[in-house]
Amino acid sequence: MGFLEKLGFKREERLQEGLEKSRDGIMGKLSKAIAGKDTVDDEVLDDLEEVLIRSDVGVPTTLKVIKRIEARVARDKYVGSGELQRILREEIIGLLKENDANKPADFDADLPNKPHVVLIVGVNGVGKTTTIGKLANMHKLAGKSVILGAADTFRAAAVQQLTIWSERADVPIIQQGQNADPAAVAYDTVAAAKKRGSDIALIDTAGRLHNKTALMDELTKIKRVMNKVVEGAPHEVILVLDASTGQNAMQQAKAFTQAVDITGLALTKLDGTAKGGIVIGISSELDVPVKYIGVGEKIEDLQIFDRVSFVEALFQDRK
């Protein structure tokens, strides 16, 4: 049985619940846009464009979606407004599938490295430490041995918070307390993972909003010392973003991907926002895949991002 199958129906149920605010906002606006309409005409498309932009899908992605729907209407000759919901889902899924970066994380695949070293980055307040704890739990459920590294030694209580999450996930943690050298903590974590035969090492980093030079310098040092222990480390760099900030999350993603070699994204706090459309915009516009989404506060509420399931849940009228 694969990893996703082990999670079963509960995963889909939590996704539906986590996207409730975003779904209600989008579907409510969409219902008003097509009320009393028999066909998808220019007025309906204009209203749909406004709905998507106001739902934080973003202008570039919205224009691509509208263009696809226009082509669909022209091809099918007659499309009733009642079909728009289904067509919208199909065209957004099709658009996201065109971005090869958006392949789901495969927890059933063998790891190419042991230990597989993952560096977690992001500004303060996005849910970075929480995401690390939940990610550790996810890897453990997949049968992997995990170790955490508390290299965010700048922010008060960051080490303590990660320690609490390590206890919740029941995984070991390497830490040297606040104000320790982050690179030294990262080095010790990778060394411990190698010595213990751990499958995964998840390493937290300071969440300051650096300028690009300072960010590169700090992360370059961390990478350099880890690479002395395990060649090629870190093997992944995950950027954590707060989905509730909407287009600000998009701007953070662009800034970080320009400064750092980001390999994947995790979008958090989807359960507390109506701005879930930002996941679609980021998935479409960036060449970095969305790997994880946070749909609640519980330890099991970090999910592997699946574009089809996400779009189906976001644009499904449950009334």
Q: Keywords for this structure?
A:
alpha/beta; 13 helices; 2 domains; 12% strand; Rossmann fold
Model description:
The protein is 51% helix and 12% strand. It is α/β, with parallel strands linked by helices. The protein has 2 domains: 3-97, Four Helix Bundle (Hemerythrin (Met), subunit A) (Up-down Bundle); 116-307, P-loop containing nucleotide triphosphate hydrolases (Rossmann fold, 3-Layer(aba) Sandwich), CATH 3.40.50.300. An 8-stranded mixed sheet has the order 3-2-4-1-5-6-7-8, sandwiched between helices. Helix 4 packs antiparallel against helix 5, helix 5 (59-76) crosses helix 12 (277-285) and helix 6 (84-97) runs antiparallel to helix 13. The longest helix has 18 residues, at 59-76.
Shape: elongated
Count every beta strand, where a strand is a DSSP E run of 2 or more residues.
8
Whole-angstrom Rg: 21 Å
* Tally of structural domains: 2
- Approximately what portion of the residues adopt beta-strand conformation? 5-15%
In N-to-C order, the SSE pattern is: HHHHHHEHEHEHEHEHEHEEH
Biggest sheet statistics = 8 strands, mixed
Q: Classify the helix fraction into a percent range.
A: 40-55%
Residue windows where pLDDT falls under 50 for at least 5 positions: none
CATH superfamily of the largest domain: P-loop containing nucleotide triphosphate hydrolases
Number of helices, where a helix is a run of at least 4 consecutive DSSP H or I residues: 13
Can you identify the CATH class of the largest domain?
Answer: Alpha Beta
CATH topology of the largest domain: Rossmann fold
* Strands side by side in the biggest sheet: 3-2-4-1-5-6-7-8
SS-based structural class? alpha/beta
What is the typical, i.e. mean, pLDDT? 87
Task: Report the CATH architecture of the largest domain.
Answer: 3-Layer(aba) Sandwich
Cα separation of the termini:
34 Å
